[in-house]
Amino acid sequence: MSTDPRVVAVAGGTGFVGGAIARELAARGHHVVVLTHRGPRPSGVATGSGPAPVFEYRRADVTKPESLAEALAGVDALFISLAFRNSPIEAPRRGQTFEKVDAAGTEALAVAAKATGVKRLVYISGAGAAPDAPRHWFRAKWRAEEAIRGSGIVYTILRPSWVYGPGDRSLNLFLGLSRWLPFVPQIGNGRQLMAPVFVADVGALATDALETPATDNATLEVGGPQTLTMDEIIRTALRTMGRRRPILHAPVLLMKIATAPLTLLPSPPMRPSAIDFVVQSAQVDTGPLQATLPRALMPLSEALATYLAPRR
Ligand SMILES: NC(=O)c1ccc[n+]([C@@H]2O[C@H](COP(=O)([O-])OP(=O)(O)OC[C@H]3O[C@@H](n4cnc5c(N)ncnc54)[C@H](OP(=O)(O)O)[C@@H]3O)[C@@H](O)[C@H]2O)c1
Fold it and tell me: Is 46 in the pocket of ligand 1 (CB under 6 A)?
């Protein structure tokens, strides 16, 4: 960025990825405004030592565009890391969908950011975003990206693959179940390829983007240093924890049939589309990222050891 921002807002700064970004921004001396529609809560989970950062909290609901201009007053740069509650399990009757929050919410933020004089945007999208993607979540992400690209504000779009770390709701869920079960449950065959990236690295890369003019108006895929199957990731995590468990695979079709009736509930605990979401692969081309934001990213086993290894 040409001028150092003094005030940086993070929409989604109470969340998993946004929390890591907010912490990194604060660690680098920025004044961080966390935008939240549900109210202040600890942002992300600490991935390092040191004192807890201090944030300014402001109310902003991206589904209520009229709430956004006031929340963005005086903000120089805006990070957007939004996901609806319980994502990827949509609850259309509650307005909790990719279209409403990821797409329309980002559109509303981009408009408000332009109107209030925000000078820089960093948008957290997802690997796979495309206008003609077969999955509607990737089309919603594309719609959000288009709002960022068309905002008239200098931007960087980051498309992470699969992000893990303390506080994530996927790997930790399976590992948590293995505490009570004699196996680790997995939906699908576990052979989908992922490029797992540590949440603290995503926070650092997003903050680097703000400070690196070479990322102006760039869209970059983000992934960790290894490509592994989901089973390899879980086995590495189990090894790190010193826990021996087999992985039990549940067929996708069976799980979709079992969860189909749940879609009748206002807030389903699972639904067939979310099963498609969790079994998809997340491969990325990190060449352009490494060329613009060179940074040594943590290998999986090293990063897992920072929060899963048994304490001595
Ligand atoms: N986690 C991954 O593996 C991964 C991988 C690739 C891409 N991404 C992308 O990273 C982004 C963040 O994901 P995450 O895992 O960090 O999600 P998360 O932990 O669920 O955080 C989502 C954030 O969105 C905010 N939010 C939800 N509804 C809102 C609303 N109506 N108005 C304002 N804020 C709202 C929440 O804040 P409040 O509830 O406090 O308002 C929360 O801080 C998403 O766009 C996701 O697609 C994530």
Answer: no
